[in-house]
Structures are given as structure tokens and as C-alpha cells.
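Q: Hi! First time doing this. I have a protein sequence and I read that you can turn it into a structure. Is that right? Here it is:
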Amino acid sequence: MVIRPFRSEDVGPIDDIFRRTQLSVPSLRNVVENCVFEDHQKVVAYGVLKLFAELHLTLDPSLSPFLKAKIIGSGIAMSLKYEQFERIHAIVEDEKEIVMIKKHFGFKEVPGKLLCIEV
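A: Yes, that's right. Below is the predicted 3D structure, encoded as C-alpha cells:
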């Protein structure tokens, strides 16, 4: 396995990989590093290391749905001040809150499962 920097001639093989997955092609905003993984001189994977900002809101569970929505909306507005961010992710456990942020803020579910590792 060889890991090397992305080159323009990699676009075709990378597009082919994305067509065979359910993932969307990532934008190149906030990229720290682009790389290609080759096996026997064939492109088998594409990697993009990107900056990822986190807004962590911990809400008092006893708050009214209206006040929760107001706080979440304010957090989103705070995030939008920074134009370099292309999306906002929400990690929500409460099913009622999931319905609320999808309905009022336009969040949608994405395929896959969010995983993280502490480094």
C-alpha cells in the first residue's frame, strides 16, 4: 500500500470510487491534506483531512421545547459567523429534539454512523 499526495490525474479513479458508494464527494474547503491510497498502482481510496469545528451545547433537560429551540438557533447563528465552515453536524440523543431540529432548522439524517476517537 502506498499513500501519496493527490494529483489531478486521480480525479477519474476517485470519481469512480464515489459513484460506487453512498458518500458525497467532500468539498476542498478547510483541507489540511489530500491523499490517495494505492494498492498495486491502482487508486483504491481517497482521503481528505479537514478541520472540524465543534459547538457543544449541553441543555438542561427540564427546559421547554421552545427554549431549547431558541438556544439551538442561537448556537447555529454563532457558528454561521465563521464563513469557512461548510456544514453543521448535530449529535442528538433525544428523539423529540431530533424531530425538532430537523423540522425547524433543516437538519437531515446522513447515512452511516458518527464515530470518534480521542487523540
